[in-house]
Amino acid sequence: MAEDIKVPKLGMSITEVTLLEWMYGDGERVEKGEVIYTVETDKSTSEIEAQSSGVIRTTGEEGKQYKIGDVIGSIE
């Protein structure tokens, strides 16, 4: 069963982030704990780790802004 990749809450006042870079391409295998993408807020840049292992499916586009909780991909 696929697990959604959602933009995590990064701070009390953060409501949007910019997806900077996917570390893996669509269809590549990732392991739990590996950094799978980076995001930028008005205050910092953060690396986001995979919450499970499997094949990554990316739907979020680099350079676009997303709200906290938006689904930007999945791990199958």
Verbal overview:
By secondary structure, this protein is mainly β. 0% of the residues lie in helices and 49% in strands. The chain is built from no helices and eight strands. It has strands spanning 3-6, 16-22, 29-30, 35-40, 45-49, 54-58, 65-67, 71-75. The chain has a four-stranded antiparallel β-sheet with strand order 1-8-6-3, with no helix packed on it. A hairpin with a 4-residue loop joins strand 4 and strand 5 (45-49). The radius of gyration is 12 Å and the shape is globular. It starts with a strand and ends with a strand. The relative contact order is 0.38.
SSE order and pairing:
Blueprint: E1 3-6, E2 16-22, E3 29-30, E4 35-40, E5 45-49, E6 54-58, E7 65-67, E8 71-75
Antiparallel strand pairs: 1-8, 2-4, 2-7, 3-6, 4-5, 6-8
Search tags:
8 strands; globular; 0% helix; 4-stranded antiparallel sheet; 76 residues; mainly beta
Mean pLDDT: 96
Instruction: Give the H and E element order.
Output: EEEEEEEE
Main sheet record: 4 strands, antiparallel
Q: What percentage of amino acids are in beta strands?
A: over 45%
Radius of gyration: 12 Å
- Overall 3D form: globular
Amino-to-carboxy terminus distance: 6 Å
Structural class: mainly beta
What is the spatial order of strands in the main beta sheet? 1-8-6-3
Question: How many H/I helices?
Answer: 0
